[in-house]
Design a protein that fits this description.
Layout (H helix, E strand, L loop, with lengths): L15 H6 L2 H6 L8 E5 L7 H8 L4 E6 L2 H13 L5 E5 L11 E7 L8 H10 L1 E12 L16 H9 L3 E9 L3 E8 L4
Parallel strand pairs: 1-2, 1-4, 2-3, 4-5
Antiparallel strand pairs: 5-7, 6-7
Keywords: Methyltransferase, Transferase
GO molecular function, one term: methyltransferase activity
InterPro entries: Methyltransf_25 (IPR041698), SAM-dependent_MTases_sf (IPR029063)
Length: 193
């Protein structure tokens, strides 16, 4: 089994170091995000990205904040309540079966894919719950030694991400390095011609 982020380490998700190496506003500015969309923030953690995603989709949009840990969902709810955001729905998952209350226009995975035990099946499930114009954004740690993040052996190369994405119902559109520690992949659903 792959490791999962320990909710007891939640403070790391909002640390000044994380804000420096992975500023949420910068990441979100690179997404194909439109007002009124329904976005899944899978592995929402403390709501680090949920809050700015909810602001971007606006009152006519919605963010489905999804996590396996109830304490993460509670932290996200508290954060979004304090921010006065009314367009966030909270969904607990077992991390295997993705049951969403409605189809989504986009899915955002930040530092999550390397934690998924069966990533191809997971990405196939995501493709199945998307609208026809659905997109997928994957932020992952670069496979280089550094103080932060998962063990180097669990980090995904761009080639591994490409193979997972392309082998699971998605088409990789672009890959961008987010210095100093991350990369961003954007994909869209594939359709048979």
């Amino acid at each position: 089994m792959t490791h999962r982020f320990d909710p007891k380490q939640m403070a790391k998700l909002d640390s000044p170091v994380r804000r420096q190496i992975l500023p949420p506003e910068l990441v979100i500015s690179k997404l194909p995000l439109l007002p009124g969309q329904v976005i899944v923030d899978f592995g929402c953690g403390s709501g680090y990205f949920t809050e700015p995603l909810a602001r971007q989709v606006g009152l006519n949009g919605k963010v489905l904040a999804v996590d396996v840990a109830p304490e993460m969902l509670a932290a996200t709810r508290e954060r979004c309540d304090q921010a006065g955001l009314l367009n966030v729905e909270y969904v607990q998952t077992d991390g295997v079966n993705l049951l969403l209350p409605q189809p989504a226009d986009g899915v955002f995975l930040a530092n999550v894919l390397h934690e998924i035990e069966k990533p191809v099946e997971f990405l196939q499930q995501l493709a199945a719950v998307m609208t026809t114009a659905g997109w997928l954004a994957i932020v992952e740690w670069l496979p280089q030694p550094m103080e932060w993040g998962p063990p180097l052996s669990e980090r995904l190369t761009i080639q591994a991400i490409y193979e997972l994405v392309e082998g699971s119902g998605w088409e990789l559109l672009c890959w961008e390095k987010l210095p100093p520690a991350h990369g961003l992949a954007i994909a869209r659903r594939k359709y048979d011609d």
